[in-house]
Design brief:
This protein is 6% helix and 41% strand. It is mainly beta. An eight-stranded mixed beta sheet has the order 5-7-8-18-10-15-13-14, with no helix packed on it.
Length: 252
Amino acid sequence: MVSWLVLLPLACALLEEQRVDPVEVNWAGVVLADLPSEGATEELTDGNVEFLDEDGEPLVLSDGSAATATQPWPDSPGWWQVRVPVDVEVTVRVAGAEDADPALATMVWRGRTPTGRAYWMQGALFTRELGWLDDFLASVSATLPGTEVVPLADGAVAHLWGEPLDPEAWAGADIAVVDGEGAEATVLRYAVEDDGTLVEATDRVDLFLAVNLAPGPVTLSVTAADGRAFSTTWPARGGDLLSAIYAALPAE
């Protein structure tokens, strides 16, 4: 699986550590409560960040304990750190506190853990404001005649939100989403105009969505026009927003 969590390389001083082939490494970075707006950056300081395996179970360290994210710096509560096994499939669940105002969605990311001590780039892990998200998805439901988008706050379904890393490479791609009950979902595809207007995707795919997905293993399968393909599965729970942001096709 192609990892969509963007990492920052460390300085040469860490090369000696890398040579010993560690079994577990520290992984850290800033987690955002929402994407920056007009230059402002809102960090997730009160909530939960879980590092799980591809089946949604806790990552287990060599001592038998679960990989647990912490906020080690009181003066920088948006900075999260976790010790993880190296180079394994990972599911990252980012959630705000239950009493957060505004309420935040639980956003679920997929990728692989690093092979050495690393940092994810700011903006690589975030969630979204739940009210904004539900309003946006309701606004695009007009393209699904007879379909009412179920609010995530109901906890009954999951939605998938994708933004390809290379929108032009996804032109004409076959994008399929199968939900936790084995049903194939309708996938909405959009291009974004310069003024921010969403239009039907033709020569590029900036955004793709699948809504009202039954919880369980939700699988995204993509085959590009040039034959490149990948598949990713999220262990979805009711109320989850599944993130296929930064989705990338394999190298040619």
